[in-house]
Design a protein that fits this description.
alpha/beta; Rossmann fold; 2 domains; six-stranded mixed β-sheet; four-stranded parallel β-sheet; globular; binds pyridoxal-5'-phosphate
């Protein structure tokens, strides 16, 4: 590099993440599975794309003045991306985070200079202490601030439509046939899904939902069913309300995954592929595992892996935490069946071979 060249800024390193075939992980699958690995972003998740787009658009239309405050409700990753860009661009960052958020995620947000408010996870979104209500209140209390509001901001999915969608299309040379992504705000699956469907309406877009969330049933029936709701451990997968950032019309269907299988699969990925990704990457891969044997021989499935695993060291990568969930000992018949299914279907699970 010529030192007199204009230097690359951190912002320019967002996106253009690699597409890696998971050939070892899916060694007995009938088709190759390609992973879009979003931990390669400078903020270690795909949320860098959202933060960059929303902040740059607000700068362009004059809503964001120098030194202003940016407020957001976030389960961690969006917060990190916003805090990173606030540090770089000189904005103040206030984040309302839910209490499910892993401890190291909170530490890292504070280390990036963000002001963090931890709110209870298991209250309805309309509750005054929910992280949505807290975010909205903090935005009101800080005049001149912008509220990113990722669950209801159309710029969320637009950021993927403009970046990750075209990247995936080009990286597969237009050959992609199935796209799998976790749905939380729905920005990823909707933005990329819309781009891919415009290129080729035959591409199937599959959202990954959590057992305990309402999205799949809502897609299938139009009903918001409170009976579907139950607390769960996964972060960023599924929802207890319908975010307007989700465009259900570009999602063909949802596949549900549970806490346990997602955690096991996330733990296996680094052991098998040397690729350290987060909890929801285990969820996305669990959905692929359920579907891959049903795909036609010429299918080219792509799965998006949202973030890096180092943010989950005190959760799924901690044996004590796994034990505390009753997942590595005291295995219930239901979980045993799940384990046998997983083993039989595709892999020998080295990390759980000790389970009796
Ligand atoms: C780790 C993780 N996985 C998946 C998602 C879901 O992505 P999206 O909000 O674009 O639906 C999120 C979003 O919060 C996340 O933080």
């Amino acid at each position: 590099m010529n030192l007199n060249d204009k230097p690359t800024t951190l912002v320019q390193t967002i996106g253009h993440t690699p597409m890696i075939p998971l050939d070892k992980f899916f060694h007995n699958s009938p088709v190759r599975v390609f992973a879009k690995v979003e931990s390669y972003n400078p903020g270690h998740s795909m949320k860098d794309r959202v933060a960059r787009h929303i902040i740059e658009e607000a700068e362009k239309d004059g809503r964001l003045k120098p030194g202003a405050t940016i407020v957001e409700t976030t389960s961690g990753n969006t917060g990190y991306s916003i805090a990173m860009l606030c540090a770089l661009k000189g904005y103040r960052c206030i984040l309302a985070v839910n209490s499910k958020c892993a401890a190291e995620k909170l530490q890292v947000l504070r280390a990036m200079g963000a002001e963090v408010h931890v709110c209870p996870a298991n209250v309805p979104p309309t509750h005054p202490e929910s992280y949505y209500s807290t975010g909205a209140r903090l935005a009101k209390e800080n005049p001149g601030s912008i509220y990113v509001n990722q669950y209801f901001n159309p710029k969320n999915s637009e950021s993927y439509y403009l970046s990750a969608g075209p990247e995936i299309w080009e990286q597969t040379e237009g050959k992609i046939t199935h796209f799998f992504a976790c749905s939380g705000t729905g920005g990823t699956v909707s933005g990329i899904g819309r781009y891919l469907k415009e290129k080729n309406p035959n591409i199937e877009v599959i959202g990954v939902d959590a057992v305990g969330s309402i999205l799949k049933k809502y897609k299938e029936t139009g009903i918001i069913d409170p009976n579907e709701l139950q607390p769960y451990r996964m972060e960023g997968v599924g929802k207890n309300m319908i975010p307007s950032a989700t465009d259900f019309s570009v999602i063909d269907r949802f596949v549900k995954v549970n806490d346990y299988e997602s955690a096991l699969v996330a733990r296996l990925l680094p052991q098998i592929e040397g690729l350290m990704c987060g909890y929801s990457s285990g969820s996305a891969l669990s959905a692929v595992i359920k579907e891959v044997f049903k795909l036609p021989k010429n299918a080219v499935p792509v799965v998006l892996l949202p973030d890096h695993g180092e943010r989950y060291m005190s959760k799924i990568f901690d044996d004590k935490w796994m034990e505390s969930q009753q997942w590595l000992n005291d295995v219930t018949p239901e979980v045993k069946a799940q384990l046998n299914y997983l083993k039989a279907e595709y892999l020998v699970f080295r990390s759980v071979e000790t389970i009796k």
